[in-house]
Task: structure prediction
Amino acid sequence: MITVAGLATARGYASGPVFIYRGDGEIPIPQYIVPSGKEGEELLRLKRAMTETRRDLENLISVLRERTGKSDVRVFECHLMILEDDALTRETESHVVDDHLNAEAAVRRTMDGARAAFGRMNDPYFRERVRDIDDIERRLQKQLTGYNRNPYRELNYPAIVVADDLTPSETVQLPKEFVLGFATNGGSTTSHVALLARALAIPVVAGLGDITSRVSPGEMVLLDGTNGALTINPDKETIEQFNALVRRQKELQESAATRIDAGRLKDGSHIDIYANVHPGVPIAGVREHGARGVGLYRSEFLWLNRELEPSEEEQFCAYRDAAIFVKLLGDKSSITIRTLDIGGDKTVNGITSREANPFLGNRSIRYLLANRQVMRTQLRAILRASAFGPVKIMYPMVSCVEELREAAVELESVKRELDRDHIEYDRNIEVGAMIEVPSAALNAAAIAEYVDFFSIGTNDLVQYTMAADRGNEAVAYLYQPLNPAIISLVKMTVAAGHAKGIPVAVCGESASDPVVGLMWVALGVDILSMSATFIPGISQMLSRLERRDLDEYAKVPASLPQTSTAQEIFDACRAWLARKTPDLEEVL
Ligand code: PEP
Ligand code: MG
Result:
C-alpha cells in the first residue's frame, strides 16, 4: 500500500478500481473522389490543416523547451521538418490535383509511401522513423477530420479515472454513471475540469505527478478529494477507516439536505445561495440542494465537443428550458445566463484560434465583441428565453467600460430586431458584469454605472491578480483566494456595488469553501453561487452563526499583522470558525 499526496481539487471520497484514460484511438479516414473544379477547395483544406498542425507543433516545442530536456524537443523538431518537407507536400498536393483524392486520403497515400520507404531501410534508426510518420499523420488527420473520439468507450464499469490531465471537452463526454472520481498527473483546483467535476459531485485529486505510471488498470485505490490523497492497494484496516469517513460525510450531507434551510442564519436572517450550472449536467440538483436559483449558467458548454456552433434555436431551447425550471423554484428565483465565456482553457475546434497567450487573449466578451454575429445570435436566444422565466444576462471577463457600452449597443439593437419581429422578451432584463479581471475591481465604481449587478469570479480574479495560471499545478501555491490583495479587491467591489445600490455576488468556486465563502459574506457580499452539491455544507455553517458573528469574522484578517501570508489568514479564519462550530470542524 502507498499513499500519494496531491491537490485537494474537488471534495469527496471514492474507492474503486482504476481506469486509465490514455486518449483517443483509431481515426476513421474518409476516402472519396473530389469532383473536377473542386480541387482548389480541397487544397485549401489541406493547407489549413498543415498550418494548424505546424502551430500545434511549434507550441508544443516552445512549452517543452521550457520544461524538459533537449532530446524531447528534438523529436518534435524532426516532426516539424517532416511536415514541412517540400517533396512530401508536393506529393500530397498532386494526389489531390491529379488523382482527385480528398485531402485525408491524399495524406494517407503520401504517408503510406513514406512509411514503406523508411520500413525498408536496414538502419534501425530510420526504421524507427515510421513512428514519427504515424504521429505526424495523426495530427494532420485530426485537423482534417475534426476527429474527437469518445475517449471513455471502454469505461463500462464504475471506476476511478486516472489520467494525465483532462480537457473540459473530455470531461463533459464522460459516462457519469461510471466515474467515481478522478486522479490526474497535472491540473489544479480551479481548472475547468475541477469545476465540472464539482458540479457533478465527483471527487478529484490533481497534481499527482506520474500517477498514470504508478497504477495499473483494475488496481484498487482510495481517492480522498477533501484532503488530496490517493492510496494505492490499501490494506484492510485503511479501507475500513476510509469507509467510516465516507459514511460520516454522507450523514452530514444528508442531514443538511433534509433539515437545513439553505442560507438561513441562526438569527433568522438570510444569505441568498444560488447554484452554478453547466448545460448538459442535470439541473435538478439546484432544487434538491435548496438553491434559490441559478447564479451562473455557463453557456459555453453548449459549444464544446462540436464542429459547428449551436444555432439560435438550439440555444433558445436550452435557455428556455432552464428558465422554466428556475421559474418553478419560487417567486424570488432567477437564472443568470453568462454569455459565451470561451478561450483560455475552454477551446473549441474551429472557433477559438490558437494564441500565444490565450488567457490574456481574445476570449469571453472580447471574443463576442469581435464576432458580432455570434454575440447577436446568443443575445437573441437569451432574450427570447426571458419571456419564459426570470432570466438575467451576465458578461464575463469585463475589463473596462468600453466593453459594456459596446455590449449595450448590441443588446439594444437585438431588442429592436425582436420588437420588429413581434417576438416577446423581458424588456427590463437585468444585465450584470463579472468582476474577474483586476482592472474591473479597481474601476468597479465606473463599471457599476453600466450594470444591474456584479458577480465576482474569484477563479479568474485570483488567477489574474496573482499572475498564476489556475490550471497549472506548479504555481498552485500562489492560488490564494484569501491573499490580502484579493480581499482588498472584493471589498472594493462590494463598496462600489453597494454605493450604486446594486447587489454583489461571488460565483467563483471559493464561494463553496466554508472558510472563504463565509468571509465573502462577512465582507458584505449579498449572494453566493456555487456547485449545488456544496450548498448543504455552507448552509450547515450558516445555520450556526448570527449576523453579528459574521461581523466579527470579517475582522479576523485585519486583526493579524499586515505582513501575514494568505495561509496564515486562512488558518486564523479556519480556527475562528472551528471554535464557533466545533461539531463541523471536520468539514472545514
Ligand atoms: C470565475 O472565474 O470565478 C468563474 C466563475 O468563471 P469560470 O470559472 O467559468 O471562468
Ligand atoms: Mg471566469
User: Anything to note?
Assistant: The domain at 272-426 is CATH 3.20.20.60 (TIM Barrel). Residues 396, 436, 457, 459-460 surround magnesium ion (ligand 2) (CB under 6 Å). The first helix runs from residue 39 to 67.
